Amino acid sequence: MSRVLYACGLMVLFSLIICFTTLLQSVLFSISGCALIKRLRMKAFSSMLRQEVGWFDRSGNNSGALCARLSTDANILQS
Q1: Membrane-crossing residues (predicted)?
Q2: Is the Cβ–Cβ distance between 73 and 44 less than 8 Å?
Q3: pLDDT above 90: percentage of residues in the chain
Q4: For residues 34 and 74, what is the distance between their CA atoms, to the nearest angstrom?
C-alpha cells in the first residue's frame, strides 16, 4: 500500500512540476516576444526617420500609413 501511495505522490509531484514549467515557458516566451516586437518597431521607426523629406510626400508614406505599418507589421510577426 505504501508503494502505491509513493507512486501516486511522485505522479502528483511530476504533474505539478510540469504545470509550473509550462507556465514559466509561456510567460518567458511572451516576455521575449514583446521585447522582439519593441526592438522591431524601434528599428522601423528609426529607419523611417532617416528617409529624405521627399519620401514622406509619396501617397503610401503619409503619417497614417506609417503609423499603421508600425502597428500592424509588428503584430503580424507576434501572432
Answers
A1: 12-37
A2: yes
A3: 61
A4: 10
Query: Considering the entire predicted model, what is its pTM?
Result: 0.70
> What is the SS3 assignment for the chain?
CHHHHHHHHHHHHHHHHHHHHHHHHHHHHHHHHHHHHHHHHHHHHHHHHCCCHHHHHCHHHCHHHHHHHHHHHHHHHHC
Residue 31 reports pLDDT greater than 80: yes
Cell numbers at 28, concatenated: 518567458
What is the span of the domain harbouring residue 57?
2-78
Helices 63-78 + 2-49 axis angle, to 10: 160
- Count up the domains in the chain and report the number: 1
Residue 42 pLDDT level (bands cut at 50, 70, 90): very high
